[in-house]
Amino acid sequence: MESTTRRKSKLMKSSLPCHLLQKKVAVEDKTAQTEEVSTSEEAVQTSAPEPAPKPEPVVAAKETVVVEEKVISVTQAPPSQYTETDVLVKSEPIEEEDKKEEEEPQEEEEKQEDVITTEQEAKIMTKTMTLQRTKFRDDITFESGWRKRVKLSDLFSANLITEETIIELETETITVEEVQEQLREYLIGLHPIAGVYNDRSEEKMSLYSAYKAKIISRGTALSLLEAQAATGNIIDPITGDMMCVDDALAQGLLDRSFAAVLTRAERGVTGYVVKGTTETMSLFQAMQAGFIVEKHGIRLLEAQIATGGIIDPVANHRLPVDIAFDRGLFDQRINKILQDPGDDTKGFLDPNTGENLTYLELIERCVEDEDTKLLLLPLVKEQETQLYKEKRLSSKILAERLHSRTSSSSSTRTAD
To answer: pTM for the whole thing?
Structure first.
């Protein structure tokens, strides 16, 4: 204000006209006001404190955080403090949370599958924990139909017994005898043709006795006795006793010439041992190695299959055909021969008709002795041979005759 008064006094002393002097004063006053404003702004800028440093971008925490909290923290923060990168970083946990929500059903399904697959194991474990184990699986054994020891582990590896049954044996909730009966098909099998029922004389006979009586040929008797030996036992059809070849020789069921042939057939059960080695070969492996003539070996394999399955001489039990394939005890070529046999591979003779049959076909013509439950090959009367050949004389009729005659003979012995 003081400078403005001075300028006015100077202008009053000037020689300019009055109206011009007033305009000049007004302009100078306006200029002076502008300078004062700018000077005051500079002073404010000079005296203003330095701006606070820009805060560091907030990095998203690694821990899982509730999605709502993340959204609020981003939207409420001042825009100037977050760059586009910061916002993307902060939004990543939200996307990860979405992915986790999508993955959760899959994880649940996988957990359910695991529960299902382990359910049976859990039951077995629960049973084991509940019941006290009193036996160990390595100590549990069975006996085969040919008097050999059978390990529990061998039956398990052949898929013939389950883990649950093993636990029951170890805890004695089931007996060895009960399991032995359940596994009868593989430990014993079906019995082969045991002897002869002579309908002409109304008597039962051993195969060797029928040969000695000239009712059947030596070849017929030997082939049927070989089938017995290759399935584990020589059978006395009168008493039902079963024994090895040596014992049958000792009891007079064979002579030495028969025993020599049957001992070789018996190796189809006990195994073939190569001289100079400890290796035990099965019947099929011996055929492949040339130790047995194939035609002869096929006849013995046929008898094993017809009575329950191929015998593993190492494990000492029978095997289903598919397991025998896996263990190299059988092959598709031999199986095809047995499934579709020709006349040259039908190695068993029916003495009534002179027909060459497979072992299974001959079994179907046999009758069962009710006393011993053994199969007997019938020798029909000469006048009934044609009826038998035409299948009008059935096995059922012959079985009824056998039963009535054996019953009457036993009652006669009792009366005596």
So the answer is: 0.68
CB burial class (10 A; 0-12, 13-18, 19+) of residue 279? Answer: exposed
User: Tokens representing 83?
Assistant: 């760059």
DSSP-based three-state secondary structure for 193 = strand
Q: Which tens digit of pLDDT belongs to each residue from 98-139?
A: 555 555 666 666 666 565 556 666 655 555 556 788 889 999
Q: What's the rounded Cα separation, in Å, for the pair 207 and 196? A: 6
Q: What residue type is assigned to position 308 of the chain? A: G
Render 82-146 in DSSP notation, one character per residue. --HHHHHHHHHHHHHHHHHHHHHHHHHHHHHHHHHHTHHHHHHHHHHHHSPP-S-GGG-EEE-TT
Angle of helix 256-270 versus helix 294-306 axis, rounded to 10: 70
Q: What is the pLDDT of residues 11-26, one digit of tens each?
A: 444 444 444 445 444 5
d(CA 348, CA 303): 10
User: How many whole angstroms separate alpha carbon 373 and alpha carbon 230?
Assistant: 20
Residue 63, CB-side half-sphere exposure with 13 Å CA sphere: 3
